[in-house]
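To illustrate the input format used throughout this study, we show a single complete record. The first block contains the structure-token representation of the backbone; no residue identities are included at this stage. The design step must infer an amino acid for every position from geometry alone.
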């Protein structure tokens, strides 16, 4: 969206009759949809093949290969989503010193959320409790606590 030239070319291509007015996103999603349709097709072929026949062996091999391909695709999609989450988080979090590289191939965000920290002031005669929001970011290899910038 930040590149005007790219936006113009994209709009021109998407309006072209050859593209059938489909957006770029639909062309990116279409191959994944075709893979899942192939899986359904192979399941139906397997139902109709004679047990123990050469056709069943070949269809089973094709089905197993397709299952592995779908599994690999899903893992890669999850890995990319995880990397995008880390990039987004690294843009939001500001470290006082950059000794902690947030983005890593092996690191992924497991859970994150806001909590309320309670501070007890024991110096005054009456105990005074103050609250402040903190954020926990649980990664597969570490736990990061952060607070909103004041």
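Output of the design step:
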């Amino acid at each position: 969206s930040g590149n005007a030239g790219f936006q113009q070319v994209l709009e021109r291509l998407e309006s072209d009759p050859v593209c059938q007015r489909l957006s770029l996103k639909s062309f990116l999603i279409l191959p994944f949809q075709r893979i899942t349709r192939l899986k359904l097709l192979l399941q139906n072929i397997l139902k109709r093949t004679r047990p123990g026949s050469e056709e069943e062996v070949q269809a089973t091999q094709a089905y197993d290969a397709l299952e592995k391909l779908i599994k690999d695709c899903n893992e890669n999609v999850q890995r990319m989503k995880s990397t995008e989450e880390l990039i987004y988080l690294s843009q939001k979090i500001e470290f006082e010193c950059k000794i902690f590289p947030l983005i890593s191939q092996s690191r992924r965000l497991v859970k994150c959320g806001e909590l309320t920290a309670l501070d007890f002031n024991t110096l005054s005669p009456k105990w005074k409790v103050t609250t402040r929001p903190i954020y926990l970011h649980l990664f597969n290899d570490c736990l990061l606590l952060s607070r909103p910038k004041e």
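Structural context for interpreting the output: The longest helix spans residues 54-92. The domain at 4-91 is CATH 1.20.900.10 (Dbl Homology Domain; Chain A).
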